[in-house]
């Protein structure tokens, strides 16, 4: 699997619009980020470093911003009604996306990893 479109062909049809909405929003809000599929997961990178990834689950969309982002935003994610773990948070398919919070998380990762030269922190 090498493209987001190939990934979308593997998820349930009813999940595709949410993924497309998120991908379009990320690319409009952060036009310098690059698409990449790795570990069977669509993700975005900046200067070759991981910024954020997305994956499908039966009851939710998983969002992975790395551990540093999860630690920094754990309380805000909980307050937003998401289910954070140490590596990802879950957005239920039937709940709206908190766009402002997602923007803060992505912006944090871009800034925090500006001087990184490795894929992961």
From TrEMBL:
Source domain of life: Bacteria
SUPFAM superfamilies: YdhG-like
Alphabetized InterPro entries for the sequence: YdhG-like
Domain named YdhG-like: residues: 18-110
Xref: Pfam families: DUF1801 (PF08818)
Protein name (database record): DUF1801 domain-containing protein
Source species of the chain: Enterococcus asini
